[in-house]
Design brief:
Length: 775
């Protein structure tokens, strides 16, 4: 065999070897590629789908919780439909899992999950039915008990299924790695036999196939070890290997997204559970508290020592619940847990639903409690659930609202009576009550016949008179109470054998007296009325009362914020009852200004009043009218110029008079100012000297000179007219103001003098704050 033949044989042998090895390598590579494709497109996606089942279950749980928390039935029905739609998605996902199951264990787990899923959605549907029926407590109870139980069961099954899927995935990866390792060895041998060509081919194959797959294997190991799904395999080409790597990266990305979503939704559920403002606990056999309870319960009971404690000691110690009531409750709890649910229905009436509990700091809380049985198979009560609400503020607000409502009703009744008639009724009723109070103790020592003729007839007549007068004036809050007392006296009058219980009679009379005094107190303190008061529009005051009553009638007594807003509105209305606005009080005075201006040959002034919501109480109304009749007329006569004079000075033809009210901690300040020529201080001093009020040559500050106009008999008018000049103006104003405990002064302003000798000024009156109300 010559060299050519050897070379030819070697070439042929090499060619055959390369062909055989190459063909074998290609065969192995195709098998490896199929194995990789099986893992990345079959086993791993199936594992991912099992992980996504948890996410879908949490979506259903969140929707169910939203349904239980919903406030209206439309929202409940809408969420129920969403949950039903998700049910079909879950069923389809489980059917896919059953199809992709590669072991009996996986198939068994999927079938268990399908059975549990049916129970889970049945429980959700029952919860929705309770919610739609308005049985919110039952819905919450079923949610906390049955729905959560099946959710936990589903989670355990799916978690086990995921473990089986991961085991299958790991086995598939190991098998793929074994085949890849075998392919690597084959290529290594082929490389050694094929000399340089096979070496080059082996290097090429290694670079093109083994290296990317090894990278993928390495990334799989890292992800499995660290659970860090941020790892990715670089993709440099888009052949079969490149597509497999792309599928692997897509798979890891979906796993990362699913993992993040599961974490987020788990955090959302925990946040919702920890922030529900309601205390929830369950009582287990032995009357002990189950370790799982709402976090808000610790805030309500002001203790973290809850789990495992005796339920009655935890919730009902330091309460107004008596020993007998607690004993009945303990017996009822023992008769319910572990027994048929019917026992709970029979004993539910002895379980307390509202208690007053004294806390460690001495504060008393009002707690509203609802009880619900948690039943298992055969309708046996396994546990009892307590839902605890702190309704302290709500009860206080409701009580205040009722008190305000009663007070408003009494105010409306008082306003419908003339003040003098109301005072006469109160006086006569108090005299009748006083006489009855003195007679009742005497009846005990008398025989029935003598008692009836001397005492009972007087008691009955007095009470009947009070009732008749109260009914005549429409004092309904008193009429019914007096009628009960009258009935008691009538029983004594008609039944000689009726016992004479002086303490009960005095207590009943005390209730009547208390109501009469309440009417008198409201009339004096809230309305500021006396027999001579007749101010204000009766229709206006009654309208305010009716509006306030309407607010209380419409208020939602289960909503603290609604109660607070209603009470604030009622308080504002009460403050304005039997008051008049400044504008209404001054209306007649202001209406007279145009005719006064015409009489003086001047333009009618522009009048502005800034009250800042301040209204006047009845006792001050006449004073304000009298004071401002003088002040407005003085401003027209002495302050404002004629239209010609004003225009010559560059002023508008119409003058202006402004009144401003301001309220501080102790006084209401009235400031009146006009834009006239100002106060002629030099002229005032000259008149005061001429009238002997000031010594000639006396040096007085302009501010002091201005106050001389309040001196009795002082006037700056040159002649007596129908409007001024008699010297009974500002001193009378001062007298009116001081009679109400106020002060008045002229305050010179630091503005430029409009003309020499004239000072801009304002009249400042300060009256006690008690004279007014700010709405």
């Amino acid at each position: 065999m010559n060299i050519r033949q050897r070379i030819t044989l070697l070439i042929i042998t090499t060619f055959l070897t390369l062909s055989f090895v190459g063909g074998f390598a290609i065969f192995q590579s195709m098998g490896s590629s199929r194995e990789v494709k099986s893992v990345t497109e079959g086993v791993v996606p199936s594992a991912i789908a099992s992980v996504e089942l948890v996410t879908q279950l949490k979506d259903v749980q969140i929707a169910t919780m939203n349904m239980v928390a919903a406030q209206d039935k439309d929202t409940v029905a809408k969420i129920k439909d969403e949950v039903t739609a998700r049910k079909s998605i879950l069923e389809k996902a489980l059917n896919n899992q059953l199809t992709q199951a590669d072991s009996n264990a996986q198939r068994g787990l999927v079938q268990q999950a399908q059975e549990s899923l049916v129970n889970y959605f049945d429980a959700i549907d029952q919860t929705a039915q309770f919610k739609l029926a308005g049985q919110d407590v039952m819905a919450e109870a079923l949610m906390s008990a049955t729905v959560d139980q099946y959710l936990t069961e589903q989670g355990a099954i799916i978690e086990t299924l995921q473990i089986e899927k991961r085991r299958s995935k790991d086995a598939a990866i190991d098998n793929m790695n074994n085949k890849l390792s075998y392919t690597s060895k084959t290529l290594s041998i082929a490389t050694a036999l094929a000399v340089l060509g096979l070496v080059l081919m082996g290097v090429l194959l290694y670079r093109q196939i083994i290296h990317p797959i090894a990278d993928m294997e390495h990334k799989m190991t890292q992800i499995a070890t660290s659970q860090d799904f941020t790892h990715r395999v670089p993709v440099k080409r888009m052949d079969e290997i490149g597509k497999s790597l792309t599928a692997f990266n897509t798979m890891v990305e979906k796993i990362q997204q699913s993992s993040d979503l599961v974490k987020q939704k788990t955090a959302d559920i925990q946040a919702m559970l920890h922030n529900i403002p309601q205390g929830i606990l369950t009582v287990t056999p032995g009357n002990t508290v189950h370790p799982e309870y709402s976090s808000y319960l610790a805030s309500i009971l002001e203790t973290k020592d809850i789990a495992g404690r005796d339920a009655t000691a935890l919730v009902f110690s330091n309460t107004t619940l008596g020993a007998d009531a607690r004993a009945q409750m303990d017996a009822a709890l023992s008769a319910c847990i572990g027994e048929d649910a019917m026992n709970f229905e029979f004993n539910a009436h002895v379980l307390p639903h509202e208690i007053h509990k004294t806390m460690p700091d001495g504060k008393v809380k009002v707690l509203d409690i609802s009880w619900s049985p948690i039943t298992g198979e055969n309708d046996i009560v396994e546990r009892l659930m307590l839902c605890v609400w702190d309704v302290t503020e709500l009860r206080a607000l409701a009580a205040e609202a009722q008190a305000q409502k009663r007070e408003l009703t009494m105010i409306g009744e008082i306003l419908s009576i003339a003040p003098d008639k109301f005072q006469a009724f109160i006086h006569s009723a108090q005299e009748f009550i006083l006489e009855n109070r003195s007679l009742i103790p005497l009846g005990k020592a008398l025989a029935p016949e003598e008692r009836n003729s001397h005492i009972v007839s007087v008691l009955f007549r007095n009470m009947h008179t009070i009732k008749g007068n109260a009914r005549t004036y429409g004092l309904l809050s008193l009429t019914n109470l007096v009628h009960e007392a009258e009935q008691a006296y009538d029983t004594l009058r008609t039944d000689a054998d009726a016992p004479w219980d002086a303490e009960a009679l005095l207590a009943q009379l005390g209730q009547v007296e208390e109501t009469v005094n309440a009417y008198a107190h409201i009339c004096a303190s809230k309305l500021g009325r006396s027999a001579s008061d007749a101010h204000g529009s009766k229709l206006l005051q009654q309208s305010r009362v009716q509006e306030a009553l309407a607010v209380l009638d419409k208020v939602d007594e289960t909503n603290p914020q609604s109660l607070r807003e209603a009470l604030q509105q009622v308080r504002s209305s009460l403050r304005l009852v039997d008051t008049e606005s400044v504008e209404d009080v001054l209306a007649e005075v202001l209406q007279s200004l145009p005719s006064l201006a015409a009489e003086l040959g001047k333009e009618a002034p522009v009048v502005t009043i800034q009250t800042h919501g301040i209204a006047l109480k009845a006792p001050i109304v006449d004073t304000v009218k009298n004071v401002y009749m003088h002040l407005y007329r003085n401003a027209m006569d002495h302050g404002l110029e004629t239209a010609a004079e004003r225009q010559a000075k560059g002023k508008p033809a119409q003058g202006s008079i402004a009144l401003d009210l301001a309220l501080d901690s102790s006084h209401v300040q009235w400031t009146l100012k006009d834009d006239g020529k100002g106060l002629a201080v030099a002229h005032i001093l000259k008149k005061a000297v001429a009238q002997g009020l000031v010594d000639a040559g006396a040096e007085l500050a302009p501010q002091d000179i201005a106050q001389l106009i309040f001196t009795p008999g002082f006037s700056t008018a040159g002649q007596v007219t129908e409007i001024s000049g008699r010297g009974v103006g500002m001193d009378a104003v001062k007298s009116f103001v001081e009679r109400q405990g106020g002060t008045i002064a002229l305050r010179l302003l630091p503005e430029a003098q409009p003309e020499p000798g004239f000072y801009p000024f304002e009249t400042v009156i300060r009256l006690p704050k008690e004279c007014v109300v700010q709405g």
